[in-house]
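Field: COMPLEX_INPUT
Field: COMPONENT_COUNT = two
Field: RESIDUE_TOTAL = 947
Field: MODE = joint
Values follow.
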Amino acid sequence: MLDQRFDPQSAEGRIYERWEEAGCFRPSGDTSAQAYSIVIPPPNVTGVLHMGHALNNTLQDILVRFERMRGKNVRWQPGTDHAGIATQMVVERQLAEAGGNESRTSLGREKFIDRVWEWKEQSGGQIINQLKRLGASCDWENERFTMGDRHNPDDQMQEAVRKVFVDLYNEGLIYRDKRLVNWDPHFQTAISDLEVENRDVKGHMWHFKYPLAGGETYTYVEKDEDGNVTLEEERDYISIATTRPETMLGDGAVAVHPDDERYAPIVGKLCEIPVGPKEHRRLIPIITDDYPDPDFGSGAVKITGAHDENDYGVAQRNKIPMYRLMDDRAQMRTDGGSYEAAASKAKAIAAGEVTASAAEVDALNLVPEAYRGLDRYEARKQVVADIDADGLMIEIEEKLITQPFGDRSGVVIEPMLTDQWFVKAEELAKPAVEAVRSGETKFVPENWAKTYYNWMDNIQPWCISRQLWWGHRIPAWFGPDGTIFVAHDETAAQAKADGHYGKPTELVQDEDVLDTWFSSALWPFSTQGWPEETEALKQYYPTSVLITAHDIIFFWVARMMMMGIHFMDEVPFHDVYIHALVLDEKGQKMSKSKGNAMDPLELVDEYGADALRFTFARLAAQGRNIRLSKGAVEGYRNFTTKLWNAARFAEMNGCEFGHALTPGELKLPLNRWIAAELGKAAGAITEALEAYKFNEAADALYQFIWNVLCDWYIELIKPVMNGEDETAKAETRKTCGWVIDQTLKLLHPFTPFVTEALWEQTEDESRAREDFLMVQDWPAFGDAWANAEAEAEMAWVLDTVSEIRSTRSVLNVPAGAQISASLIGASDKVKAWAKENETPIKQLARLGSFTVTEDKPARAVTIASGDETVALEILDVIDPAAEIARLDKEMGKLQKDITGTEKKLANENFVAKAPPEIVEENRERVTEWTATLAKLSSAREQLASFS
RNA sequence: GGGCGGUUAGCUCAGCGGUAGAGCACUACGUUGACAUCGUAGGGGUCACUGGUUCGAUCCCAGUACCGCCCA
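Field: COMPLEX_OUTPUT
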């Protein structure tokens, strides 16, 4: 006997273990079956399960379980990525908290990395266990880690990364360059654009005078829209607005828009940077470029190519030198020679007297001694104060400014010109874009392809080097003169170098490691054994679908596409399903800092994994975000309870589970009907899942289980079960058990635990379940169970019961009253239905009698529909006014419908141009409504005559 | 500034050319041997606005307003 309700807490862990022990998560390996593979978007090894993961993996698990049941050879590839910065941060923090004297630097690179591995082995990857709590049926025996295996120097995951780097380098698609990157002063490494969060913060805009060289003057004229002069004055300066005064020291030019007439007189002249020792102030040219917006600030922009993204572009276009001002900690430089020496060299460069390489320019430290060693914000204060003291400050504006923050460190990112390794993403992007355009890879919903194109079409060189210790060390070695030797390993590099130099030469390996995403980009094939040509690779690459959220299109989809196509000659996935973001009840993004984050595991604890999973599925409509509330999860927990109790009822009534059934065996309309309904539901669910319409599949299940199976079928079979007809009982027991069996299968991908528990606990002693529900065949009925006759009959029964119930309720007939009802004017077929279903109709509508007659009882309330009428003998127990009100309301509605439809039919254009079946449908409606209206009208007259 | 999306019942959202739907909330009634984590019934909508296409528009097109998100 089943318990009163399902207890997720005690059942889930046990069931999951049994699946795992039985090897249910393993691919069948059956090469004759169609392969179906998904690679998990690998979560950070430091990660903890958040709502996004929970949704993402629930959807993957639904698909994977569905396809497994359909007999496919399924691999759901799990694993984690090594998360360079995040992991290094965790271990560094641990060292600090330990309170000893150990730190990353005191340990040194090798020992520190050992510590990271130890951490990874002991406490990393807790998210994996959290995924198991959700029910994720990943192929855990094949779990992968982007850093591979610590103890195996020939590790294939590392091998794959090395090979990709070396190959791309040899093909000219990886190069080393000095470019502006996002520098994180806290972690002292470059980070990706995508790890930078731009936020609006309160800031200042300082307006300064840059005096013209040699005391020159010009007439500055401002005009309004109509060309009227609004300001005209002589100036010996150009006004520059900046939010970052400390970077003035590295200015290489002042730029104005070529069409800006205000500054036309001074373009090509020089102006002075108004800071630093007066005798060594630098002069910089006033140039034109399209970048400055004449309507913003003064319209003149200072150009600091080494510390600003936009300025970098201007400087590149106009060959303006880019002077780096800060060190790795974003403090003003202390290296190099004196300011005086640097400034005089810079002047010479500016005057075109000498040329300098980028490295020579970079070596110049243009920070005056007074500012050296200051933090960038301290330097800013000083610079502002010094300029102000000089009388060259015009004004300070308070305003919101957009600043870049490191998403891990939370500090302001410093754009900085540094030497880094880059991938020519613009090259690799071409075939990756083409693959989507040609439909080889499809986005679902397809509008996300636009986002993909937009990014890919504007893709920047991908900076892949990171100044970290934890990660794949870049396989590049430098000779004493800086020559680069890229090779698979040190021996190979050494051989190259010795050849190059003609003698044994000492090499130093690049200190940097690769961006974590560099190795993640290989995930769809590296996890399957590449570069070996493994059986797994043949079977499971390309993968069937990648499931992810839109905010990760750039991280995942784009990079995997580029690498997959380049190295495998085939796209890494056929479909990319982009799911919703999980928002809180108010539609806000969940975040720790806002404090509105919900913990999926808490919800699992409270309501069970199934409830959370079903909630996600039902809310996962394409193209919409999900607002999650506890109430929703509770509601779907109730749904699982409902199903549980339906099974419990079946069990109590001796229903038989675990057997086959064929359409020919069924004689009772209600059994034929529920089988037909099940068939329709199964078709809808399958179709929806094939189209990634998780919400529609979940909806079909919810409706079938609650509104059809529980609300009607179980109610309808109660009279059978309590009756005397043993043949009918036997058929119904068999049908009911079978329908529930099939329902469990259909629901299993969504709520694996409760369905598996029911499967296990509803077995008969005589017919023990042979295997898990999880490995049963997916119900595929086609239209084998369709039965128009039974469906029509039961539709009539349901309709009749509903009408009687509604009328009783509206007229306030006591719920317990057993009233008499009769059916009048019915066709022979309907009469037969009425007799056949007398007992269930009586029971469900709470009738004392339900008879078929030709004579309408005198004092009865009429329920009319088309030809037939149901008369309820309740006139004596109700308020006639209530009945008149009911009739008036119904008649009013009917009259309105009839008038509207008649008008439509009177329109010649409608009759001529609308499809004939639509016209016919409308005609039939009018006929039926008119008949009904007539009957209601006569009933009303009669009623009036009584009272 | 560029791009994407949204606006349907009190709330959260489906639907997307042919009589407006669900869940929750609400109201009334109800413990009938599966389930009160429940049942039965009911109320509630000019489908943001303005034009257009069409026999017919919540649905397609154009524009307007407001609200999100992403990128600069």
